[in-house]
Amino acid sequence: MSLLTLAYLLLPAVGALLANQATDVRTARRVGAGFLAAATLIASTAPVSLLLAADDPLWALSKVASRDPALAWAPAFVSLVSFVAVAMTPAVGTRPASIARMMAVAAAAGGVVAMPHPAVVAIAWALGAVPVWLELRRASERGASARMFALYMLPSAGLVASGCFLLSDGGTLTGFVVLTVGLAIREAVMPLHSWLLAAVDDAPMGLVVAFVAPQIGVAVHLSQNDILPSAGVGEAMAIISALTAVGAAFMGVFQSNARRAVAYLFISQSGLVGVGLETSSEVARTGATLTWMTVGLASAGFAMALAALEARRGRQSLERPAGSLAETPRLAAAFLVLGLASVGLPATVGFVAEDLLMQGTVGQFPSLGLMMVAATALNGVTVVKAFFALFNGTPARNPKQDLLGRERLVLSLVLACLVGLGLAPALATRAAGPSHAATRSE
Amino acid sequence: MLILAVLLWFFDDVPEAVIWAVVATAFGGATLAGLATAGGMVVHDVDEVRVPLGTWFSVGHYEFEVALVLDRLSVPFAVFGTGLVGLVGAFSQRYLHREARFARFFLLLSVLGAGVVLVVLAGSLDLIFMGWELVGLSSALLVAFFDHRPAPVRHGLRAFITYRLCDAGLLSAVVWLHHTAGTSAFVDVSGQWASIDVTHVPVVTAGLFILLATLGKSAQVPLGGWLPRAMEGPTTSSAIFYGALSIHLGPYLLLRSATLLEASPWVAGAVFTIGLLTALHGTVVGRVQSDIKSALAYASMTQVGVIFMEIALGLRFLALVHVVGHASYRSLQILRSPSLLHDQHNMERAVGSALPHPGGHLERLVPRALQPWLYRLALERGYLDAVLVHFVVAPFARLARLLDRLERAWLSAFAGPPEGPRAQAVETSQDIEASS
User: Would you call B411 and A366 a contact, using CB atoms and an 8 Å cutoff?
Assistant: First the structure.
């Protein structure tokens, strides 16, 4: 293991220990955000290192990155999303231990993407779920969500470990299917999604974002790119993903609970990514990879904007407009733009990702391409419906504060990434574009 | 648009004069550029100018080309659109002076302007889709402009849902054209202006997708119920969106896709039928409206229905003239609508008697026995909204609620027994310890 990889893996872990020892949540958050920012900076050397030397002397990613160059960006992406989750976590109603658990989740996710060795993936995959379970055990009413979470995550850990073992032993179709089912549970593919709804109900939003938004299952899937499932298996997985995208988008529109609406948005978009990954076209796979990162970053900002609103006004319902745009105009604007960027707002990289994903998919699966169009349309409705309900209405008697300096800085960073890469997407498409060797031949 | 957005994100209390200066410079400059282009094309007797701006992004064989088409269709629309945005901006600068939402209005007006310019100058359906989305979003946000009142917010959401579902038609058309023909770029095949090359395209499917896209933006039957409700927004935005630019983007898209209508009598027939039904619906329902903005909304709907019929019949230049004429007249009417009583009194003073009730000749054509029935039908807006709500939306909502209940029941199956007072006390003391 190189020094940089070690530093990348240790920073969130050490940050978790220090945050846990902090006397107040603000200190814990400062420590956590600092360590994750450092990890992000270190991780951003991975693609540069690969660009300069094919054998990647600084990172152990050359093998997987030769299958998919996007994997070189995955460590930076994972720590950036975790940074957004930690830095945007409000102090109100959060304990230092919760920040420490977010850091622990980030450390485990970093292990999966930076050390794509089967044993490391299997262990880090299992360990990453433990902090969320501990938080849910404490927070959930009568233990329901903690038990449900355990019921889903234990099989997921077992299946991923078995899949990794079978694949490292020779790359069988059985291994691929076992691994994929394990990944699908954590990616909340329908009907294996219920744990996510339970988790968003009870866990701090930052922890849910750190656990879900990086979608590290996509990285594992991409790193197994040389395993070719039969056409039937790939098609079946694409159909399940498309049904997930449409089904979750449909459920999201009718949600009256803001957190559940966000959860369904996560689920639907992970379905969209899934369709692209199962498509043989280079365009679709690039679109899927770009969607993975765009949606991860935009959704993290979107969900944390909701968390910031909850810190000001408590848990939010979408039954009727009950907010005030005049009080929190920047928070409202960030919520809307980030939400829409995740569903393909023009002038953001979300549009580029969506365009590539659909153009690439329709050639192989025309009907699934049209289902993806429907899912995207419904997801847009969910975002705008939530915006209208959360930020329109009569101003409260005690005016709420707009974005704090810290929140504004983090959201500005996320928005700059999404808009900057949207206006000049060449870097993003090059980063997400699979190498020709990796593209499954049609 | 981007300059204004960045200014408002980073600075508090940006002065009205600065906001207006940014908008006026952008749209004044765009109008002058458009006029200069039009003049140059007339002087040099050029029918079409293509401006390739390069490849925005590409992967493998797929490229997103950004190219603009300046021709006899796009240039009048572009000059008219940017000029009108500038004029309405100038009007709004006074109309919304010291309004708390002044900055938001001008930001959304800029988004509309950018969207319209993209749609009309686009050299491909891909680029049209980008502008189309921006126009829809700004429209819905302006309908909900007075965000402290529940009705505008509800109506804004309704408008956005209609747009979004119909936009799926446009996105499907884009994807379908790439799938079947390999491109959605407009080429000079019709002899009048650049349009879709239908050689390898299943025209009925693509045509129906495009028709679906136009139903939402142009408030055509059966999806036009959002239009009268959209009048809850500021009068100036109603004028430019629903009197002039946004509502005429549907006809623009049909004119740009004229080859699809030529190639398929079925699609042309569908466009004609929709236009006819909308014109009848608009004129009947509009006659019983008791507020001026709703009456004008239905009048707009009627005229756009007639424009659809003209396009379906191949009367494209008539449709183009009709669009520009109707947009100018209707936006002026809507802008003047807050002064309706004042204008009415002025005219009556000038004439010396009460003004005659217009439209009576049509009412006389309806048999007396049918009049109450027709009146009721018009009051209920042709029952279209009720049918959509009860037979389309309600079943889906019931299904979603059922699935949600099942989901919650599944979660509650994992709940343990209620905790006793002792366990709760231990938990509370642990919490206090941890937080201290």
Answer: no
Inspect the interface and report whether the beta carbons of B400 and A429 lie closer than 8 Å: no
Interface of B with A in 109-128 (CB under 8 A): 126
CB within 8 Å: B56 and A425: yes
Nearest CA of chain B to the CA of A2: how many Å? 33
- Give the per-residue pLDDT at A116: 77
Q: Closest CB to A381: pick one of B56, B160, B412.
A: B160
Q: H/E element holding B309? A: helix B292-312
What residue spans define the domains of chain A?
229-442
**What would the mean pLDDT of A142-170 be, rounded to a whole number?**
89
Kindly state the tokens that stand for A248: 């979750």
With a CB-CB cutoff of 8 Å, which residues 369-428 of chain B face chain A? 396-397, 400-401, 403-404, 407, 410-412, 414-419
* B140 touching A (Cβ < 8 Å): yes
Q: Is B290 helix (H, G, I), strand (E, B) or coil?
A: coil
Chain B residue numbers with beta carbons less than 8 Å from the beta carbon of A352 are 56-57, 64
User: Is B175's CB within 8 Å of A145's CB?
Assistant: no
Residue A362 is predicted with a pLDDT of 87
Question: Among all chains, which residue has been given the structure tokens 């507020």?
Answer: B291
Q: Which residues contact A432 (CB under 8 A, 6 or more apart)?
A: A69, A70, A73, A286, A287, A289, A290, A293, A353
Ramachandran angles phi, psi of A278, nearest 5°: -90, 5
Name the closest residue on chain A to residue B434, using Cα atoms.
Answer: A95
What band does A434 get if pLDDT is binned at 50, 70 and 90?
Answer: low
* B7 and chain A in contact, CB less than 8 A: no
Rounded CA-CA distance B223/B219 in Å is: 6
pLDDT at A430 over 70: yes
Task: Locate the domains of chain B by residue range.
Answer: 2-341
Taking only the tens place, the pLDDT of each residue in A171-200 is: 677 888 899 999 999 999 999 999 999 999
